[in-house]
Specification:
28% helix, 225 residues, two-stranded antiparallel ribbon, six-stranded antiparallel sheet, alpha+beta
């Protein structure tokens, strides 16, 4: 097995609607937002974790390819077939739980797709700083109302999100490995990565997608390294 090269995917993620990728909050003070967004602990700036991007791409591609990926997944664990050439296993990786799976993982090789955290572009940070006084730092606070089906009393709630129009710089790297085929399997599988990026723009990112959040538009280039 040999590393032949990389495909570098880089560009911008533009928010067409508000984005909410949440963080846990064990304690909440009076007046706090119910659902805060995840932030860089050093800069307090909201960002898109690479794990969120990669996880959503995998989720969408598994549904697109269908079959056992969905049928045999469990509540907490994804399913990867016992086939070293399986595209999901090669692109996104797997966590072997027994000796047989470890042998297959050795034949398959390392995870091909590396997804970096995506950070606000300098231009977007400047634009968002101008609206800080109207909401959270670099975000907006959206008020929503839940109406119980019995009783009908309005129950307000707040959600923090990054406003529409913000842009994040993103980068992904795809490894091309020679597993005895001159790298052809990985070159062929790259079409699945591009399909996942297409599906991401049709579906969405983060939470509350069915309520209008998380619509994104990608502008990217692919370079051979």
């Amino acid at each position: 097995m040999k590393l032949l090269g990389y495909k570098r995917i880089h560009g911008t993620i533009r928010l067409k609607s508000g984005l909410r990728i949440g963080m846990s909050k064990d304690q909440m003070a009076i007046g706090d937002v119910d659902n805060p967004v995840i932030r860089n602990p050093l800069t307090e700036e909201p960002y898109i974790p690479g794990s969120s991007l990669k996880g959503k791409m995998r989720y969408l591609l598994e549904w697109h390819l269908g079959g056992d990926y969905i049928a045999r997944s469990t509540e907490k664990h994804v399913y990867v077939p016992d086939d070293p050439k399986d595209p999901i296993g090669r692109i996104f990786g797997s966590a072997p739980s027994n000796e047989a799976q470890r042998r297959i993982a050795q034949q398959r090789g390392p995870t091909r797709l590396l997804v970096r955290d995506a950070y606000l572009t300098p231009e977007s940070k400047q634009a968002l700083e101008r609206m800080t006084a109207r909401g959270g730092y670099l975000t907006e606070v959206k008020q929503e109302v839940f109406i119980p089906r019995i009783g009908g009393n309005a129950n307000p709630r707040t959600a923090e999100r990054v406003p529409a129009g913000a842009e994040f710089a993103f980068e992904m790297v795809y490894r091309v490995m020679d597993t005895g085929d001159g790298g052809q399997t990985d070159r062929d599988n790259f079409r699945h990565v591009e399909k996942a990026l297409e599906l991401l723009q049709l579906d969405g990112l983060g939470g509350y997608i069915s309520r209008g959040y998380g619509q994104v538009e990608l502008d990217y280039r692919v370079e051979e390294k």
